[in-house]
Amino acid sequence: MFKKNMAPRRTQQVRAGPSTEQSYVYKVVLLGSTAVGKSSIAFRYVKNDFRESMPTVGCSFFTQLVCLETATIKLEIWDTAGQEKYHSVCRLYYRGANAALLVYDIARKATFARAKLWLRELEKEFLHDEIVIVLVSNKTDLAAQREVTFEEAEEFAKSRSLIYMETSAKSNHHVTEVFMAVAHKLLKQEQQKESALQHQPWKKSRVDLREPSNQTKKCCMN
Ligand SMILES: Nc1nc2c(ncn2[C@@H]2O[C@H](COP(=O)(O)OP(=O)(O)OP(=O)(O)O)[C@@H](O)[C@H]2O)c(=O)[nH]1
Predict the structure, then answer these.
(1) Rounded to whole angstroms, what are the CA distances from 84 to 56, 74, 80, 101, 114?
(2) How far is the CA of 172 from the centre of ligand 1 (A)?
(3) Closest ligand 1 atom, CA of 52?
(4) 50 close to 169: Cβ distance less than 8 angstroms
(5) Which ipTM did the prediction report?
(6) Residue with the nearest Cα to atom 9 of ligand 1?
(7) Pairing state between β 11-16 and 19-31
(8) CB-CB neighbours of 58 under 10 Å
(9) Is the CB of 172 under 6 A from ligand 1?
(10) What are the pLDDT digits (tens) for 183-203?
(11) pTM of this prediction?
(12) Looking at ligand 1, which atom is closest to the CA of residue 169?
C-alpha cells in the first residue's frame, strides 16, 4: 500500500535577463546493504574517482549540477550507511526524497533481497508517482562471480516499474548514466505537471475560506 509522502519537492525558477531559465533542486538518496558500493558510486559520479573507502557512518552528502537542454538541475545526493545498525537512521534520510537508487552487488545475492526490502519500505512512504526509483546492479566488473542475472533483476524492475541499470563504480561503467536517467525522468515529470496546470488553469486557483479580516468586519457593522 502506498502512503503519501508529505515533504514537498523543492523547485524554483530563476529569471536571468530576458530569458527564463528553469532550475530545480532534487534530493536523491542511495540505499542498500553495506559494501555494495553506494559511496563508490556517489564518489565516481561527483569526483570521477574510485578509492577504497571505509564504511559510511550515518550518511554522506554530495551535490552535483546537471545542465540539461531546458533546465539546470541540482542533485542533492544522500549516501546512506548500509550497516544494519544504521537502518533506522536511514529512514530519516529518505524522507522527502525525489529519487532513490536501490543499490545491490551482483556478486552477492543477499544484497538483491535487501534492495527488495528497501523498495517495500519506500512503497509504504511514497505514492507511486512521487519518487523515481532506480534498481542499480553494481560491480559488473565482477562478472565471473555474478549471483544475480541481468534477466532476473530486469524482470523484477519491470514488474515494479523501476528503472534498471547495471554499473561498475570501479571501471566507471554507466555511473553518470544512472544520475542522468534520474535527472531526465524528474524533469519530464515536472514538465508534465506544469503543462497539465497550463491546460487546467482552474487547478491553480484557490478559494480563500479564512475568516474575513477585522477591517471587513468593522465595515459590515457600520
Ligand atoms: N570490484 C568492485 N568493487 C567495488 C565497486 N564499487 C565499490 N567497490 C568496493 O566495494 C567495497 C565497498 O564499497 P563502498 O562504496 O564503501 O560501499 P557502501 O555501499 O557505501 O558501504 P557502506 O558505507 O558500508 O554502506 C569497497 O572495497 C569498494 O572498493 C565496483 O564497482 N567494483
Answers:
(1) 12, 30, 11, 18, 11
(2) 13
(3) 29
(4) yes
(5) 0.99
(6) 37
(7) antiparallel
(8) 12
(9) no
(10) 999 999 998 888 888 777 666
(11) 0.85
(12) 31
